[in-house]
Specification:
Strand content: 15-25%
Radius of gyration: 17 Å
Number of strands: 7
Shape: globular
Order of helices and strands: EHEHEEHEEEHH
Structural class: alpha+beta
Strand order of the largest sheet: 2-6-5-4
Number of helices: 5
Length: about 150
């Protein structure tokens, strides 16, 4: 399974250090977890939600990265509320039940947020993130066809 993320270049390690310090949407402080998306476009869309309103304040060291895992994700039950999802993920991380778990994305329900547990025994087998520079300014520029036709959708 290929997993995608947009992150700062200094945060490419798959160690979950950021979540240890700050927690995550579905995880508490103190437990490592790495957030991925099931598709590259979903990773970009999720990251876009966290960009500053002023593009001049945007980070200039973003990367789009991917890795692959040889595992199917354990699925978080879709009918859980936010608090119950957090409790489920906390138990999943603490118990090290599986390498990855999938939560239906609230941004785009056709995709998944995939949580990677760096403390699972199989985590050491996962290759480091393959990354390339990424820029929202470059991918969200005015489309040439919009200029050509002078219309919006």
């Amino acid at each position: 399974m290929k997993l995608w993320r947009v992150t700062r270049s200094a945060h490419c390690a798959l160690d979950g250090a950021g979540a240890i310090l700050h927690g995550g949407r579905y995880s508490p402080l103190g437990l490592p977890v790495v957030h991925f998306a099931s598709e590259a476009a979903l990773a970009a869309l999720i990251a876009l939600r966290y960009q500053p309103a002023d593009p001049a304040e945007a980070a200039t060291d973003l990367v789009l990265g991917w890795t692959e895992v040889d595992a199917l994700p354990e699925r978080v039950p879709a009918d859980l509320d936010e608090a119950s999802i957090r409790a489920w993920v906390t138990d999943w991380l603490s118990e090290r039940r599986s390498l990855v778990a999938a939560v239906v994305s609230r941004v785009l329900p056709e995709g998944d947020v995939v949580l990677f547990n760096p403390l699972h025994p199989d985590a050491q087998l996962v290759r480091p993130l393959h990354a390339r520079p990424f820029s929202f300014a470059e991918c969200l520029h005015t489309p040439p066809m919009r200029v050509f036709y002078g219309t919006d959708l």
